[in-house]
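Help needed: design a sequence for this.
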């Protein structure tokens, strides 16, 4: 029997035998863990691990599209298109009308150089799910690049704008397509729509918009095109435009499935609670001498180091040293402490109410924090932004200048030094005073 036929026969037969009710609670827990670890590996770019995890998902739940579709994504990202095609064929068999699977078919066809087939698949995905902006834009993009496809491209862009009418990236593309189409009234209408949506109050931007509009009205298509490109170049630096583009161009190969089918999801919800975890005391002689402690925090790259706050000051106890207490930081008595690698040096830095403590070659350097500010450690992230706007890999960000909300911190950074930022919302996290220099 040919290998491809055997593959399809085995997968089809095993999926017929699979039932969510046949999985034990332990198998259901493992299935959920494998899925989550696979998704995390995809996000981190570890395609080898992602492939292993989704293979485990397929073995446990062969009738679930998720393991096949997400395994195909991992294969595509590994540039193994042959394997991606096999896996995606089974995902399509299991979920032929799933817009997410159709979108992946479009991605694979585009990688294979089949632009027409890719555009058709993306179009089907967007027709099933009108909120699927990436598929709608991909269909528009591919149509624009094909002979005689401009009208199809415009229709797709307009359909996407029905779902996201203020998306600056799509409005810029509609303005561009209408100008290239050659109809002056339609071009002016599309470009004016973009201009109204911008509404920035930026003098330079408004100047170029006015000049572009005037050139378009006069019939000078070349000058109008140049001026509108200058407008877009200015917009590209703005967070709003960047987010608008990410909404339609996520910047990754394939968007993974994250939810199970309704039947399996119900089985997961109905499973018994996990086996309770019991803790027992472990004697660590080096910690027996600690007295007058007010707070303790886990720290270090693996979370096994400890930092104590108390009457005698801040004390770090490292796992590698058997948790022997170090010398307390001078004049650092406190009832609270947070720990982070603020300087991205690999060493622990401490934050207490009123002070940031950073280790340097001469010991610990203290920087005062204005009274009333509070400290908030942020989740570890792969990316962050410093005050100069350069992307930089960082550890846990810390120290937020606010008394009420996260947004307040972002809005009050003008007179402070920015330490780091939460990557997902691009909001700065700041620390007073300005003498602190990351």
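Sure. Designed sequence:
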């Amino acid at each position: 029997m040919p290998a491809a036929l055997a593959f399809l026969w085995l997968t089809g037969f095993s999926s017929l035998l699979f039932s969510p009710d046949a999985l034990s609670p332990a198998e259901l827990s493992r299935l959920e863990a494998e899925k989550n670890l696979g998704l995390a590996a995809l996000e981190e770019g570890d395609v080898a691990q992602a492939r292993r995890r989704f293979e485990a998902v397929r073995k446990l739940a062969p009738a679930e599209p998720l393991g096949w579709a997400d395994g195909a994504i991992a294969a595509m990202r590994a540039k193994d298109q042959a394997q991606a095609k096999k896996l995606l064929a089974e995902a399509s068999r299991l979920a032929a009308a799933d817009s997410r699977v159709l979108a992946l078919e479009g991605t694979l066809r585009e990688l294979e150089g089949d632009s027409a087939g890719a555009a058709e698949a993306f179009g089907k995905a967007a027709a099933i799910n009108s909120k699927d902006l990436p598929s709608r834009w991909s269909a528009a993009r591919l149509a624009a690049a094909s002979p005689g496809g401009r009208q199809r491209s415009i229709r797709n862009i307009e359909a996407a704008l029905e779902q996201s009418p203020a998306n600056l990236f799509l409005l810029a593309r509609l303005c561009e397509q209408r100008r290239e189409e050659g109809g002056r009234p339609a071009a002016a209408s599309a470009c004016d729509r973009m201009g109204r949506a911008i509404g920035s109050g930026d003098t330079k931007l408004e100047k170029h918009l006015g000049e572009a509009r005037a050139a378009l009205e006069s019939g000078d298509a070349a000058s109008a095109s140049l001026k509108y490109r200058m407008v877009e170049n200015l917009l590209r630096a703005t967070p709003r435009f960047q987010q608008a583009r990410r909404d339609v161009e996520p910047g990754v190969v394939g968007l993974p499935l994250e939810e199970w089918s309704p039947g399996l999801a119900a089985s997961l919800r109905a499973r018994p609670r996990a086996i309770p975890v019991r803790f027992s005391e472990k004697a660590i002689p080096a910690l027996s001498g600690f007295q007058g402690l007010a707070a303790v925090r886990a720290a270090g790259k693996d979370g096994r180091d400890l930092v104590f706050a108390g009457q005698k000051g801040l004390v770090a106890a490292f796992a590698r040293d058997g948790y022997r207490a170090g010398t307390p930081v001078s004049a650092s008595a406190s009832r609270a402490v947070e720990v982070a690698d603020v300087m991205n040096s690999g060493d622990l830095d401490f934050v207490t109410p009123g002070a940031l403590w950073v280790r340097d070659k001469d010991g610990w350097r203290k920087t005062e924090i204005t009274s009333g500010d509070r400290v908030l450690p942020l989740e570890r992230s792969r990316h962050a932004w410093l005050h100069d706007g350069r992307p930089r890999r960082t550890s846990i960000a810390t120290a937020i200048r606010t008394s009420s909300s996260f947004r307040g911190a972002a809005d009050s950074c003008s007179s402070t030094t920015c330490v780091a930022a939460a990557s997902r919302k691009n909001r700065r996290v700041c620390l007073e005073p300005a003498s602190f220099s990351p």
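Residues 289-431 form one domain.
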